[in-house]
Amino acid sequence: MTQPVSLSIVLPVYGVADYLPRCLDSILAAELPGLQVIAVDDCSPDRSGEILDAYAARDPRLKVTHLAANRGLGGAREAGLEQATGEYVWFVDSDDWLADGAVDEVAARLAEIRPDVLITGFARVYPDGGTEPDTWRRLLVEPPLPPTFTLAERPGLLQMIMSVWNKVIRREYLASLDVHFGVGYYEDISVTYPLLLAARSLSYLDRDLYFYRRQRAGAITNTASPKHADAFAQYDAIFAFLDRRPEIGPSLCRLVFDRTVKQAVTILDTPGLVPDELREDFFRRTTEHFRRHRPAGHTFPKGLRGVQYRLVERGAWGAYQRLRPLRALPRTLPGTVKRAVRGAGRRGLYETYRRLPIDENLAVYAAYWYRGYSCNPAAIYERMRELAPQVKGVWVVNTPAQAAALPDGVPYVLANTPRYLKLMATAKYLVNNVNFPHTMTKRAGSVHVQTQHGTPLKYLGLDLRDRPLAADGMDFDRLLEHVARWDYLVSPNPHSTESFQRAYPGSYEVLEAGYPRNDRLADPDPKEVTAIRDRLGVPAGNRVVLYTPTHREQHDSFVPALDVVALARALGPTTTVLMRAHYFYGDAGLPDDAGVIDVSGHPVVEDLYLAADILVTDYSSSMFDYAVLDRPIVVFAPDWDDYQRIRGVYFDLMAEPPGAVARTDDELAALLAPGGAADTNATAKLRADFRAKFCPWDDGHAAERVVRSVFPVR
C-alpha cells in the first residue's frame, strides 16, 4: 500500500495584498492530511500581514512568521524552509495561485513515485486575462517520459523556465545539496539549477497546476531596476556548485553555461528591464561572466545567437548595439496565425518604444474604449489647451469614421497602429474615463489620470464580487492591476470619493474637483441651448423630456422598461421626447414613425442635458449630472427591488430621490402631463437636498482644478 507523503508549502509574502487571498484560497482548499503552510511576511508594507493573520485564525494549517526586517524573496524562502517539517517542500509565490485540486494531485504523484523533484505543468497568466501554457512543454512530453528520469536523459529541460515555484522538492535531498537562495533578483536559480543537475530521479506531472502571473506591476520581469545585475551573483553560485560536483558531466556544464549566457543577453535585450544608463555596464558584466565560466569544449551556437555570443566574448558593446535581427512573415501563414503574430509583433514594437525617453509634453486621451471625443477627458483636454498649451494632446479612436467625427483641429491616432503604440509607450500623461488596454503596461514616470464617467448609485469594482450576474465573469485581479496604474482619480462629490475608494482600493490620489464634463451645465448659455435643440430637430417652443434608462445586467440587449412611444403620444405634440439608450447599445430600436427622437447615437450627452426641460431616468448616473442644471427630474423605477438585488446600490434612491418617483407607465405619464406633479415645491425641495449632497463642487471650474493638479500650468 502506498504510504502518504507530508507536504510543506512555503509562501514568501511582500506587497501582494491584492493577490494574496486568491493564492491562499487555492492552497487551503486542499484536503491533504497534515498539510503545512508556512507564510513568511517579509515586512510587507501593505495589508498582507493582516490578511495572513486573519486566514491563520481560521485555518490551523497556516502558520505565519512576521520577519523583523525585510530579507527579500530568497531570505523569506530560507526562513520558511527552516520551519518546514514535510517530506516534500513546495515554494509558491504569493501573487500566483494553484489550480483546483493541485495540492492533492501533487501529493498523490509524490506518494506513488517519491522522486527527488516533481516538476509540475504551469500556465502563464497575462494582465489582459489571457493564459498561455508552458511553451517548452514539448521538451518533456516528446518523446513520452518515463515516470522518473534524470537531467542527463532529458537535457532539454534546461531550456524550460528555471524558477523554483513549479518544482516540488524532497526536503532531505534539498538539504544535502548545500545550496541557498540568493540575494536580490533571480534568487531561485542558484537553487533550481543544482536541484535538476544532481537529482537521481525527476518526475513530470503534465497538467497546468500552477498559474504564474506575468507582467504584474512591480514584478521583476516588468520592472526597470539595477537589481537585474543580481543575476551574475546567482550564476557564480551555480558554477561554484558545479565545481563541487565533478561527477556532473562536461556536456551538462556546457548546457548550463549556454543557458546562463542566454538569460543574461535576454535580460539586456528586453525593453524596460536594465535602465538605459546601466546597459553598457550590464553588457560588460556579461562579458566577464562569459570569460570566467566558459567551460572547455563549449562552441558558439549557430545563427543570431552565435553572433551575440561572439560579440559578448569580445566585449564589443558598440557592435552589439547595432545588431538588429530582421524577420519577415511568410504570406502563406493562415489568418489566425498571422493575427497572433501581428499581436506578438505589436507587443514587441510597444516594448521597443518603451525604451525611448518619455515625452514630457505629450498627453494621450481616450473615452469609452476609444469610441470618440467625449466626457471628462474631453473637458480636461479643452482646458489643458488653454492652461498648458505646451502639452500636446492626442486622442485615440478605433476607426476612421470616429476620427472624422472629432472636432476640427483635434489630433488623433488610430488604435493598434505603430504610431499609437509609440504614443502609448512615450506619453507622460494618459487620461481616460475607462481603463486603457491591459497590455499597455504603466511606465515609470508616466502619469495616469482616471476620470470615471459617473457618480455611482450602483455597485462598482470589488463591490461586485458577491453579485455574480452583475459581475458577469469580471476578473477582479486584473481590475486591481489596472487600479495600481492610476496616479489620480477624479471624483465628482464626497459620496463618489467614498464609493470609489471602497470599490477600487489603491494608492492613487483622489482629485475632489467635481466632474469636468459638467462645467458646461453650471451656467448654461440660452443661445447654446436653442442651437442644440435646432440641431436635434426639436420643434420651436416644445417642452423637451429626456429619457435615459440604464443597463440591466439580466438582459443581453436593450429591453426598455418604458413604452416611450406611448408616453410621447400621451404627452401630445407640444412635448418632444428624446430617447437615450445606454451607451452599451447602438440605438433604442425605435420605429421611424415613433414620434420620439432617438438620440442614443449623439456623441455628447451634455448637449442632451442642456436641451431637456425635464429628465426621466431610472438608476442612471445621468441624474447626478443633470441635477447641476437644477431642472426637474423624475425617477421611473418599475423594477427597483430587482435592480437592488441584482446589481446592488450604495444608497436607497427611493428614500432620497432627486424628484418625483413613478412606478408605472401611467404614473409617469400623469407626472409629466401639463399641470402634473413633476415640478412642485415638494420636488424642488428634494432636488435641492440631492444637489447639496451630489453637486457641491460643480461650479464650472472642475476641469481647471484637474488641469492645475496634473499638468505643468504656465
Automatic annotation (TrEMBL):
It comes from the Bacteria. It is a peripheral membrane protein. InterPro entries: Glycerophosphate_synth, Glyco_trans_2-like, Nucleotide-diphossugar_trans, TagF_C, TagF_N, Teichoic_Acid_Biosynth. Keywords: Cell membrane, Membrane, Teichoic acid biosynthesis, Transferase. It is found in: Cell membrane. Residues 8-174 form the Glycosyltransferase 2-like domain. The keyword Ligase does not apply. Its main location: membrane. The keyword Cell membrane applies. GO terms for molecular function: CDP-glycerol glycerophosphotransferase activity. GO terms for biological process: teichoic acid biosynthetic process. Belongs to the CDP-glycerol glycerophosphotransferase family. This is CDP-glycerol:glycerophosphate glycerophosphotransferase. It comes from Streptacidiphilus pinicola.
